[in-house]
TrEMBL record:
GO molecular function: adenylate cyclase activity
Domain Guanylate cyclase as annotated: residue spans: 435-568
Keywords: Membrane, Transmembrane, Transmembrane helix
InterPro entries linked to this entry: A/G_cyclase, Adenylyl/Guanylyl_Cyclase_3/4, CHASE2, Nucleotide_cyclase
Annotated transmembrane regions: 320-338, 345-361, 373-393
PROSITE patterns the UniProt entry points to: GUANYLATE_CYCLASE_2
Originating species: Paenibacillus lycopersici
Stated name of the protein: Adenylate/guanylate cyclase domain-containing protein
Biased composition (Basic and acidic residues): 624-634
Domain of life: Bacteria
GO aspect biological process, one term: cAMP biosynthetic process
Region listing for Disordered, in residue ranges: 604-634
PANTHER family reported for this sequence: ADENYLATE CYCLASE, TERMINAL-DIFFERENTIATION SPECIFIC, ADENYLATE CYCLASE, TERMINAL-DIFFERENTIATION SPECIFIC-RELATED
Length: 634
């Protein structure tokens, strides 16, 4: 490829790379970022389908049956105190109540009883709700407007608090756990699920905030939270509409447990989440598992707690990795596509997409890491589009250029072959091995004196048409008309190893096709129209020669051309003369006769000349030609 083409490809690659890198930086929360999230959801859904819920995490739901049996929400807090006492006395490891109790109750005695329950059972967790400002920076730290704690009359201690904020991405889907949030005093309030997970983790794997190291740790391993303190967790159950008995957490109705239909001992050694499980309570969210089916908040807390217990969460690679991948999937394809055309480009593109997609999936499944997909993929697709458009524009330009140069001189098949071969057309000049043919009418001057101008033009056009068709039939290049003569080239611009044979075959074709014209002229005007042909083979300089201002013609120059012209001038009417250079490359294929040496201008020594009379019986010609049967000149 020319240096300028490489420079153009590299420049295009850099522009495409910078364009998509810039968009990836600005695209947080935009359509393409949402597409990235959707693709990740598809993969996590397939992966999550193989997981099972932790049997030590159980749900007690405030469902429609409980609302029907115990009355509409909000309930008397004595019901919660009674339930907590039953479960704790039966040996539940931890009890989490996903019900906001931020205001004092109507009956101080009931609140006092609830406070006594909280003091008696320290393994109870109550919710804290952070209320954020309406407008948030998607990537930056969350800005708190107010915080709702359990009412002071309930008496919950600091170690019995966990925030229940379930934050949604811009598409309304919950994918991340906010591990902890700072209160107004600067203290870190862990998530509900963090408090629960710690009850199932041993001392060496406890999750907590390390102020000295300024990060959240699970044991000695730092949790991969983002700038908002969020961790992308995994899911172990499906949305409730897609569940069966084996795919969800153990779920029992609040009223059934409270009335003894489900014995409290059933929860011995388990962590228990109590929370809303009815549509009217407005605590349900979309998850990566379905764009339609929702999960209740209590289910999401359970899934996040299990993800923390298992230490299974996935991370997003850094922005630097994204830039590097955009650069890789821009510059590599542009270098590959620059070397190929047509369907090969699409095959390589498809292979790159498959390899990158499989790598993307494997990194998630093996390392729980998501590298960017959308922006690198779009960068690579942009390169494909640019390469295809560039190829067709260049092909169209090249086709027009080649057709403009050679369309008048060679048959259409030669132009198509030249374009299909990819052979570079150096119109500025190059040395090529070719065969050159000169043809000239014998007796044209006496014929002109006997004919009207219109008749002269008619005969001349018929003769030139015969010559042109013969040259084109054997894929020669019609160099020029020289008065009543013709110059043709074989072996350029398309290389033809057998160009000497093609030139001789074209000459014999002219001889055969001109028989009718010769007889008609002899009959009508008494002068036979016959021609002489000279053919020589060898090196010559071919290219566009002429004036840039007026006209450039593709032609050949050199000694090979000059000798062909001299042979033609020495040929008698109806005679085809070839040089030794041509004869040596067609020996045995044609019926030839050595006529001797002829003196030619520009040569000190006489030049051997051989007449071609026809084809031999065994000639492996491209087109069968019978020997000319007209009258031969002597």
């Amino acid at each position: 490829m020319h240096r300028r083409k490489w420079i153009a490809a590299a420049a295009a690659g850099i522009v495409i790379m910078l364009f998509w890198s810039f968009l990836s930086q600005l695209g947080t929360g935009g359509t393409l970022s949402k597409l990235e999230s959707v693709l990740q959801d598809k993969v996590t859904k397939q992966s999550d389908a193989a997981r099972k819920p932790n049997v030590n995490i159980k749900l007690i739901t405030i469902d429609q049956a409980s609302l029907d049996g115990l009355g509409q929400f909000p309930w008397d807090r004595s019901l919660y105190a009674q339930m907590i006492g039953m479960l704790a006395d039966a040996g539940a490891k931890a009890i989490a109540l996903d019900v906001v109790l931020s205001e004092p109750g109507n009956d101080p005695a009931i609140d006092a009883a609830m406070a006594e329950t909280m003091r008696k059972y320290p393994n109870v967790v109550l919710p804290v709700v952070f209320n954020f400002k309406a407008r948030q920076d998607q990537a930056g730290a969350l800005e708190t407007e107010s915080i709702s704690y359990p009412a002071s009359t309930i008496g919950a201690g600091p170690d019995q608090l966990g925030h229940i904020n379930v934050l949604q991405d811009n598409d309304g889907t919950v994918r991340k756990l906010t591990v902890g949030l700072r209160d107004n005093a600067g203290r870190m309030v862990p998530a509900f699920s963090v408090k629960l997970a710690n009850y199932l983790l041993d001392a060496s794997h406890q999750i907590g905030w390390d102020a000295g190291r300024n990060g959240w740790y699970r044991g000695d391993k730092r949790l991969p939270v983002d700038a908002r303190g969020q961790l992308t967790t995994q899911f172990y159950t499906e949305p409730r509409e897609a569940m069966n008995a084996d795919t969800g957490y153990d779920t029992q109705s609040f009223v059934d447990v409270l009335t003894g239909n489900v014995p409290p001992e059933y929860y011995q050694g388990d962590i228990v989440l109590i929370g809303p499980y009815a549509p009217g309570l407005q605590d349900e969210y979309l998850t990566p598992l379905s764009p339609v089916l929702k999960m209740y908040g209590v289910e999401i807390h359970a899934n996040m707690a299990q993800s923390l217990v298992a230490g299974k969460f996935y991370t997003q690679s850094g922005q630097g990795i994204g830039y590097a991948l955009i650069a890789l999937l821009t510059l590599l394809p542009i270098l590959l596509f620059a070397r190929m055309t047509g369907y090969k480009t699409f095959i390589v593109y498809g292979a790159l997409v498959i390899v990158y997609t499989l790598t993307w999936i494997e990194l998630y499944q093996l390392e729980s890491v998501f590298i960017p997909f959308t922006y690198p993929f779009l960068a690579m697709t942009t390169v494909l589009i640019w390469s295809v458009v560039r190829y067709y524009v260049m092909e169209r330009t090249e086709r027009g250029r080649v057709t403009n140069i050679f369309g008048r001189f060679v048959p259409r098949t030669v132009v198509d072959e030249l374009l299909a071969s990819g052979e570079e057309v150096k119109v500025g000049g190059q040395r090529r091995d070719i065969s050159v043919m000169f043809v000239d009418i014998r007796g044209f001057t006496p014929m002109s004196e006997k004919l009207e101008p219109e008749q002269i033009i008619q005969v001349l056009n018929e003769y030139l048409d015969i010559c042109t068709k013969a040259v084109f039939k054997y894929n020669g290049t019609l160099d020029k008309f020289i008065g009543d003569g013709v110059m043709a080239i074989f072996g350029a611009p398309v290389s033809q190893p057998n160009h000497p044979e093609l030139a001789v075959l074209a000459a014999l074709e002219m001889k055969r096709q001109s028989a009718e014209l010769e007889e008609r002229c002899l009959r009508e005007i008494g002068v036979p129209v016959r021609f002489g042909v000279g053919i020589n083979s060898g090196p010559a300089v071919v290219g566009n020669i002429g004036s840039q201002m007026l006209r450039l013609d593709y032609t050949a120059i050199g000694d090979t051309v000059n000798l062909a012209a001299r042979l033609e001038s020495n040929a008698k009417p109806g005679q085809i003369l070839i040089s030794d250079a041509t004869l040596n490359r067609v020996t045995g294929r044609f019926d030839t006769a050595f006529i001797g040496e002829i003196k030619v201008k520009g040569k000190e020594k006489p030049v051997p000349a051989t007449e071609v009379r026809g084809q031999t019986e065994s000639s492996p010609s491209l087109h069968p030609i019978r020997e000319f049967e007209g009258r031969e000149g002597t």
